[in-house]
Amino acid sequence: MAGERADAHEPSHLPVMWTQVMDGLRVRRDGRYLDGTFGRGGHARGVLDLLGPQGRLLLMDKDPEAIVVAAEQFGGDERVAVRQGSFAALGAWDLAQEGLDGVLFDLGVSSPQLDVAERGFSFRNDGPLDMRMDPDSGESAAEWLARAPEAEIADVLWTFGEERLSRRIARAIVARRAESPITRTTELAELIASVVPRGDGKIHPATRSFQAIRIHVNRELSDLEAGLAAAQQRLRPGGRLVVISFHSLEDRIVKRFIAERAKAPPGNRRMPIAPALFTPTLLDIGGAQRADEGELDQNVRSRSAVLRVAEKVAA
Ligand SMILES: C[S@@+](CC[C@H](N)C(=O)[O-])C[C@H]1O[C@@H](n2cnc3c(N)ncnc32)[C@H](O)[C@@H]1O
Q1: Which residue puts its alpha carbon closest to atom 4 of ligand 1?
Q2: In this predicted model, what pLDDT tens digit does every residue of 69-124 receive, in sequence order?
Q3: What residue ranges of the chain have pLDDT lower than 70?
Q4: Which of 45, 49, 59, 62 to mutate for ligand 1's pocket (most ligand atoms within 8 Å of CB)?
Q5: Paired residues of 56 in beta bridges
Q6: How far is ligand 1, taken at its centre, from the CA of residue 271, in Å?
Q7: Nearest residue CA, atom 3 of ligand 1?
Q8: What is residue 1's predicted lDDT score, i.e. its pLDDT?
Q9: For the whole prediction, is pTM greater than 0.85?
């Protein structure tokens, strides 16, 4: 693949919160598990090591390059099945319809996606402004920025990037595209840097905007909501849902999803809710978990990771 680094198929990516993920999934030797975010298979390998010959591991990823790696590394293992697609659609996979004992979502982008300039995720490496995890589906970042109304661009930067200067950046994008289309990552990064003061210099001025555009282009939050619902539906009683988030908006969705199914909503004087009327469908296992000190020192990515575990309650 043009421009791809030679090591892009290697597991360059340290699996985040590996021990907590394995504890959370509580893998049974004969269980059926689904890893909805294969990436480079760090977590998947851990699950496979714990599975016996009757166990099953279903692997999904939106990214066709991740799927090539999954097929290369695990395709010969009869316990493994691989499918390209969003975990939002996991419920449509016949193998998931047989029921699952555990589902893992390790959200966000993988190191190879960020590192390979041609994928267009990085403001540091010049590449085509793409940012799609699945380059065959939906609009690229360049296509969206070429047609979206200014207010929509500002809204995305504000909502998904918490970018205070969202309107100023959106105005600059619309002014620039009237002269010529914005097609390269560094072109967009430089444009943003030209209208955003550098601040304390800790993060590049385009960091928040790139994150926001990526979340929008990949429909990350709506996929997460659909994926959580599909996972809950396909889990067997006692099955575990494990989600690692890297963004407060993602974690808020996961936290609320679990809380709404684990706890009776607080009543009020006018509408008291009798606890007997609420039947929990999930148990919250351990609340928000963070990486331990050793991992925080070694893996920068783990610093923003929040892991949550829920268990499906028997009907
Ligand atoms: C952080 S990496 C996962 C790393 C993996 N756990 C490992 O150990 O190598 C995230 C991966 O999830 C994929 N992804 C993100 N959202 C997805 C979705 N809605 N459906 C399927 N895959 C998704 C990305 O393409 C990326 O490969």
Answers
A1: 39
A2: 999 999 999 999 999 999 999 999 999 999 999 999 999 999 999 999 999 999 99
A3: 1-14, 200-201, 269, 272-275
A4: 62
A5: 32
A6: 42
A7: 39
A8: 28
A9: yes
Note whether 100 and 25 are within 8 A (CB).
no
Pocket test for ligand 1, best of 14, 16, 38 (most atoms within 8 A of CB): 38
Q: Which of 133, 243, 250 to mutate to test the pocket of ligand 1 (most atoms within 8 A of CB)?
A: 133
pLDDT at 272: 66
CA 37, CA 57: separation in Å to the nearest integer? Answer: 12
